[in-house]
Amino acid sequence: MTEITRDVLAVAGIYLFVLLVIGWVSYRKALPTPEDFFMAGRAFGPIVLIFAVYATNMTAFYMLGTPGNAYRQGIGTYGYIAFASALVIPAMFYLIGYRAWLIGKRYGYMTPSEFLGARYESPAVALVLFVLLVVYTVPYIVTSVIGAGLALESLGKIPYLWGAAGVLLITMLYTVFGGMRGTAWTSVFQGVVFIIVGLLAFVLIANSLGGFAAITQRVYAERSELLQRTGNFDPKDWFSFLFIAPLAVIAFPHVFMRVLTGKSARTLKALTVVYPLLFLLTWPPVIYIGLWGSVVIPGLDARSSDAILPMMIARFLPPVMLGLGLAAIWAAIMSTLDAMMLTLSTMLTRDLLGRFFPRYVREKGREVVLGRLFIIVIALLAFIGALLRPGTIYDIAKFAFTGYSLTVPAMFASFYWKRSTAWGILASLVIPNLLLPFYYFTPYFSWSTFGFLPVVPLMVLAIVLLVLVSLRTRPPSEQTVQRFFNPHS
Amino acid sequence: MQAKERIFVLILAIFVALHLDLWGWGRIEPMLWGWIPYHIWYHGLLTLLVTFCIIWIVVWVWPRDSSKF
């Protein structure tokens, strides 16, 4: 082990130790109830909620996939992903999140499947949504673990699997003990770490490359095509992407559940206002680092370029920054990983076991115990996924995001269209999601995209099916509809 | 959906049109301070405008009574 590797591991070790301490403290504060373990009593104030949601939203995709994308496709990555997210995500917090929060607080719902199942008086709707969310969350968890392994390999010269296993183990421990409170408190710490280190790395790397203007002018001279969008992005793809990453966020079960943990409407309002500014503060630094990487470390292929951020830190910053850089990348990754593991365990406990064995699950405090066991099982499965390492982080995320987005019309209808029915929701969920793999992995349906990403025709299909089938079938009882449209009546 | 919410959705659509920015796809200049190309300052400015819009939503559209939609 080299001296640099020891320094990197020492700093990263301190970071991991702090996480375990926070997890332990939150465990000591916990009550042995499902509402406390899975939702932290729905009592988070603005600071914890903002970091819990934002840090959860930022993952391997942000710290590794985004600089990698800037390396390959240039500066337009900001508008393509960050601005689109700054626009759509807060709007969804208001249009869907607030209503879900209000109803969830009133009736005790936790997961998206519980909401839709109750709204349409349909176990089938709940089960289908549960299956879809599990199918899309598992690959998303795998991208996080891959990112953690890649970061340690690039910065610490430690084999990929050690990083993946270490991050999974620590995340699993503080999630098992701390539950929602532990994952949210650690998110505050992790958010502060990756925001500050990201800004620091941005300034220090620019400095070591001769300053912001000097290195950007070098990109202008050698790779000017990366400073514009023509040739790097397609307008139809650009438009389509609005319906993928940004729209998908409110359908992420781990984000949806966290929005429900806000203490008051004021907390949600604070989250909504601050969100676009956080994108403006945190995305340009990682995009610029990827862009500069295209001229100082040229020639990387798509998969290798996912590691451009750690490569730049390793090459241009002093050893202490390597450890901080690794901590920042892990912070972004783990803050999502913990939320996804907790959410998936909540869904498996409540939406699956709770539905088929309700008495067994609710007796003797088993709900929390089962939730903890599921977290351990999910961690093991995620490790197996990381061993297989399928595709680039960017590609895996894009497929999962499209799937999440296709559940949004159903969520929207449940809050805004009284006439929508269980059959309409089932049609809009099942058929487009069955077609999705054919769009991504076969050429059979490419004619129907008209140059847009598959999400566009599939979204249109989901909406059309929802409307047509709903108009031909019977809506839920008036009493149920009123529970969702007038929850305090 | 209330009238104010419909206005909000309309404003969102305008932002989407501005985000498409088809007239600026090939532009790099003007490059602010030598390192902020057109795309970044244009979309950075749009991000600030979105923030002001969200503040408007929170103050004027979002119900003050947190038991209502």
How is this structure best described in words?
The complex is a heterodimer of chains A (489) and B (69). Chain A has 489 residues and is mostly helical. Chain A has one domain: Sodium/glucose cotransporter (Up-down Bundle), CATH 1.20.1730.10. Helix content of chain A is 80%, strand content 0%. In chain A, helix 7 packs antiparallel against helix 16 and helix 8 (160-208) crosses helix 16. The relative contact order of chain A is 0.18. The mean pLDDT of chain A is 91. Chain B is an all-alpha fold. In chain B, 61% of the residues lie in helices and 0% in strands. Chain B is built from two helices and no strands. Chain B has helices at residues 3-20, 38-61. The longest helix of chain B has 24 residues, at 38-61.
Output the CATH topology of chain A. Sodium/glucose cotransporter
Main sheet of chain A, how many strands, which sense, barrel?
A: none
Helix content of chain A: over 70%
Q: Low-confidence segments of chain A, ≥5 residues, pLDDT <50?
A: none
Number of strand segments of chain A:
0
Q: Which CATH C-level class of chain A is it? A: Mainly Alpha
Following the backbone from N to C, one meets helices and strands of chain B in this order, namely: HH
Going by CATH, the homologous superfamily of chain A would be Sodium/glucose cotransporter
Structural class of chain A: mainly alpha
Q: How many whole angstroms does the radius of gyration of chain A measure?
A: 22 Å
Low-confidence stretches of chain B: none
Q: Give me the secondary-structure category of chain B.
A: mainly alpha
Strand content of chain A: under 5%
Shape of chain A: globular
Total number of helices of chain A = 23
How much is the average pLDDT of chain A?
A: 91
β-strand percent of chain B reads under 5%
